[in-house]
């Protein structure tokens, strides 16, 4: 079960992780992009944090929708539409309720991932956040089908996400600004893959905190 | 190095406020959401021409707002595409009743934000067409990448489409014209130094005195290859040779189809530039290149074109599409036909370009 307060705590935790890792994300983006991934996401999430209290009324869907729209309007670049679309699509899947059962939570995440892949027209192996989100989603779904707890399913997804993030290092970029570097894009972790891992890790830490 | 910077967070805003103060007869700056528009917009009955992209490329795009060019420009943060709300509000503000043309450079962020904006604008009943600029020949293996970047040809498209709109062209014809100019344009750039974004104040890559970056983009990103520095004429030779050696180029893009009301994949091919062609030649500094050096580049470019049997009908030398304080150059050739030449020559009144 994932309740609305946990979702809000997840958003706060992700915003905090972005702020903490801002320099690291920007450093990754300096190597193969344009040195602004951390700065741009942090600008968007600071705006989200300012407004979170205004979204108290309404269920999980309303909260996620507002997060997505705020990111779309404040982040810009590629990460604005991509993370924005993730939360807007997750919002549609979550609906107006105050809580989600485990299978619904997995479905919420999965719909968000599909939204990202469609918006960016990225495929597996392109060296993007999709390379983290898709295998992590698959691990989460598989664990849920086995009947594990939500905490266990998300933990497995985070483990897969960390490996998948590191696996973007040797890849040749085929989407986004890194793709212009050709062979020179190899040897650097994709910044979007790193922030996508942080998103999942933030969810895991939020759920664990509740359990303990 | 010191710079004229009060606060990185207000850098873009303050620069635009200065632009508006200096060119109050030409343009206005709208805040929240941020966009620049013609002082007399909306122009009734005229197709609205809207462009935008990350800041740091000045005078592109806001410097090209005015009669004969853009109705609105949407500036993003430094090297970051604008957001859909900026584009939507700008489009509504310049709508003269005959539709809006979006001119978008081919970067994943720009494509996504402009697509989202186009969907929102269409939902409000406005007609929108998009021209995607992808003219940078440094990007070779485009089958598996984002494709070519949009650089110098953007200036030609903004001018030619802007003047076509003044002349009363309708939206489908302006869209087709803009795509034709894009297919006729090719660019390549070279950097002698990196640039330092206001937020970090640090160069984005390090280059020794003995090296140059060949095939750069316009966001301070490294080029496709780092090569040894040679004489200016040799560097220009290498640039021009790679422009002219570039063969027919085919790209796939996603264009809006009014009939099916959805995006469809379209394939377009342009032809190499060669003997007998008449061209517009642009030599743009990357922001920190002295004008005197740009003319040394133009001198070599002009000699090359004579040698290759290519006639430069028109030219522009100066800062057109820049990358903050980068030292470097961007060379663009656009094949011209009579229609494009006439529209290029038509009057223009913007902050950066005025003639006729």
UniProtKB/TrEMBL annotation, chain A:
Gene: dhaL
This enzyme's EC code(s): 2.7.-.-
MF (Gene Ontology): glycerone kinase activity
Ranges where the DhaL domain occurs: 5-205
A GO cellular component entry from the record: cytosol
GO biological process: one example: glycerol catabolic process
Organism: Kolteria novifilia
Alphabetized InterPro entries for the sequence: DhaK_L_YcgS, DhaL_dom, DhaL_dom_sf, Dihydroxyacetone_Kinase
SMART domains in the cross-refs: Dak2
Pfam families the record matches: Dak2
Keywords: Kinase, Transferase
Superkingdom, taxonomy of origin: Bacteria
Protein name per the record: PTS-dependent dihydroxyacetone kinase, ADP-binding subunit DhaL
TrEMBL record, chain B:
GO function terms (MF aspect): glycerone kinase activity
Keyword line: Kinase, Transferase
EC number(s) on file: 2.7.-.-
Signal peptide (UniProt feature, chain positions): none
Gene Ontology biological-process entries: glycerol catabolic process
Span of domain DhaK: 7-355
Transmembrane segments: none
EC class name: transferase
Keyword Transmembrane: no
Cellular component, GO, one term: cytosol
A Pfam family recorded for this sequence: Dak1
InterPro entries named in the record: DhaK_1 (IPR012736), DhaK_dom (IPR004006), Dihydroxyacetone_Kinase (IPR050861)
Record protein name field: PTS-dependent dihydroxyacetone kinase, dihydroxyacetone-binding subunit DhaK
Organism: Kolteria novifilia
Lineage of the species this protein comes from: Bacteria, Pseudomonadati, Planctomycetota, Planctomycetia, Kolteriales
